[in-house]
Amino acid sequence: MRTETRSGRAAGAAWHARPLAEVLAAWGTDPEQGLSEAEAAARLGRFGPNRLPEEPPPSWWRIFLAQFQDFMVLLLLAATGVSLLLGETSDAAVILAILLLNALLGTFQEARAERSLSLLKALTAPRVRVLRQGRERTLPAEEVVPGDLLLLEAGDRVGADARLLAASALEADESALTGESQPVPKRAEAGLPEETPLGERSDMVYQGTVITRGRGRAVVVATGLATEIGAIAGLMTGSEEPRTPLEERLDRLGRWIVAACLAIAAATTLLGIARGYAPYEMFLAGVGLAVAAIPEGLPAVVTITLALGVQRMIRRNAVVRHLPAVETLGTATVICSDKTGTLTRNEMSVREVRWPGGRCLVEGVGYDPDPRAARLRLEGAGGGAALRRLALAALLASDARLRRRRDGWSVEGDPTEGALVALAGRAGLDPEGSRAAWRRLAELPFEPERRAMSVLVRAPAGEAEAVWPAAAGAPAAEAILVTKGAPDRLLESSLHLLEGGRPRPLTPEARERLAREADEMAARALRVLALAYRPARAAGEVRPEDEEGLVFLGLVGMIDPPRPESAGAVAQCREAGIRVTMITGDHPATALAVAREVGIADRPEQVVLGRELEGLTDRALERRLGEARVFARVSPAHKLRVVRALQRLGEVVAMTGDGVNDAPAVKQADIGVAMGRSGTEVTREAADLVLTDDDFATIVAAVREGRAIYDNVRRSIRYLLACNTGELLAMFGGTLLALPLPLTAAQILFVNLVTDGLPAIALSLEPPEEDVMRRPPRPPRESLFARGLGRRVLERGFFIGLATLAVFAAVWWQRRDLALARTLATATLVLTQLIHALEVRAEHRPFWEPGPGGNPALVAANASSFAALLLVVYLPWAARAFELVAPGPADWLPVALACLAALALAAVDQMVRRRGRGRRRPPFTRRRPIR
């Protein structure tokens, strides 16, 4: 009796190693009839649906409540309570309104991202064919149960892990599971050694992989979490999702503000007590002043900044699942990228065709068979006739079909054969017409032992000798045997080669020369196939011994080519100071060739194999990472280890991928980036950023957006803190000088309304600086106040407070009119803050320059705030509400002088900093070179 797990795997079973009869007996499956419907229903209830468990999406109210877990938000909630205790209900109402707006924005964005991802899931909803009660049925993959008989053919997505019972020329694309870009031959075996690696288990097919060729029948041995995909998904449960740098910085900022507010409250209280005021009254006054100093608009401004960045990312074909995640990508120092389907197109393309005495270089990618879709450069003897003859042989020995879709051409069947069919079309042949004319009579499928396959075709009347000339002394052909296979195998089986349009004896020297050409092509990471033919009888079958005495035609080299935009994207990453590392399960030669083409690596010493990783300690791996740029033949656990090692070195790691094998490393990375179109559901669930166009170049746009968002967050923080610092110093200075309070609570509230809202939000709309992608990444743990921001906050805050206090004191001492003095102090506070908004928008250039695209929103925000000031001052009912009076034209003179002083100070400060920056090293430096 077997012991079963809930998800359908017999405990301790190594299904690839057990005899077929034992596998069938273990699951009680009839190899001819399959399961009965009743038994299948019972097993579905016992084992559960064939899907990976996933957490239900959080309800809107949970998302909403999560917005109140931020430290700054909790601080502001405490401030609201204090305001209510002090009787300042208007302050409390404003703070609560801003917090609710912040929470609603965060809830809306995260819910919208979840909806976008649910639409992406619809891209992967496979159906499978099974045999039940002797009848073929098509049903959703989630209804498959252990013991079901899967019916497989080219184009099918395998619905569960299964042991093969029968296979005819069967091959599977396992790139999503193992990273191997070439289809893997499959066959029904008596059993393999138990220690056989996953990628070499030829008697098994696995959930999520795709059948590219042939037909087969298999018994399901694992479903759900018990599958290999489920095991990889289980790796992710141990991967912790780190806090983003922005979250950490804002948390530290909130604590810094608390400390500053408590210090100010304590100083105010002690000063008042020293002057003879009642301790209780001064305690309440000090706490109230500290609450007024909190920039209550900061969480809303940061959320809006991130939300606007998310909207721009959606327009750039990227879905951000968590608001702070896009900023983290802007701090990335290393991008670990999968090769297949991420840097490459995940489709084979012919690069070179060789025949005795000549060759053709093919410039073009994809499966479009139109001759205009590629440039053919013929060299040497033979010309177009030799190319067409070789392309015809490749076409006739292939089963793949090309289909035109709205977004281009796709292949049904083996991608390698799809590339050969596309070559035939580009060489001027009509693929379907040629197949109809050269009718197939028989086939000898590919077998790993022979490393070849053959087809027997009948030639159109009168064309056999013209296209396939027989060797001297050979009988007239009834049919033609076309053979495709490994170059060394076909060279060994050939007696002649076709040169100059006629078969000539294949001498040892010629055989050695052709073998060297095949090796040279393989060294460039091309997958090399050889083609040969011979006249044959029009028999009903082809036998292995018929693949002897061949006439060698030539070689075809193909590769999964890089995406056209990958090289440019990698170059931009280099310019931005970001190292790109390739991590793939593919062959090292193929990986290095792609890496060379896109600019990631250029030397074999930069390639590390998975087996080498297993022999390295953590410390040795960290040292090896200094030079390594390509990791090949790696497992999911290897990828996870590399990402963790980079993080231990202090790198901010972005991991891109599309296959199931990428998912654990994608989740562990500081930013996980998944491909939405070709990516698997497991990987998309693990990712922070999903690219809906599967375009590696979109990552560069995300880096640019992330850096721009961080710049804008710094602008908003600098602006808001400087303004609130100015308000604090004006109030504290008035107390220190024994003056009346320069502003009332209502007037401070008005200033915060008109200056902390629209101008701060408008700063978040500032377009990226022109040099944003020419700066190295920021240090991962850089403070928000780095590069002099803290100093500038204090400097501008001190000036704003001093200017406000100076205007108030001058008017008070000269006119003894408290209402007028407070009116002009309020105006000075508002206008100097609006001038400061113009200054902070240009951190890397003079503020009087418009910058790329300008910022009309800031102009409109400043104009609105200025208009609000004039309305409050000159509308009688508004002036009475805020205890203000209407100044005469001459009364505005001290305010104008303060504004001119603010403009002059900003101009001088920026000129001094620009001159100093020209003499110093750049503000960002790396700990080590990236090249």
Please characterize this protein's 3D structure.
This protein has 931 residues and is an alpha+beta fold. Strands 10, 11, 12, 15, 16, 17, 18, 19, 20 and 21 form a ten-stranded mixed beta sheet that branches. It has an eight-stranded mixed beta sheet with strand order 8-27-26-25-9-22-24-23, sandwiched between helices. Strands 1, 2, 3, 4, 5, 6 and 7 form a seven-stranded antiparallel beta sheet that branches. α25 links the parallel β26 and β27. α5 (89-121) packs parallel to α10 (298-315), α8 (245-274) packs antiparallel against α9 (279-293) and α29 (789-815) runs antiparallel to α30. It is elongated and about 125 Å long. Mean pLDDT is 81; it is low at 1-12, 119-125 and 919-931.
Attribute tags:
alpha+beta; ten-stranded mixed β-sheet; eight-stranded mixed β-sheet; 27 strands; 47% helix; 17% strand; elongated; disordered N terminus
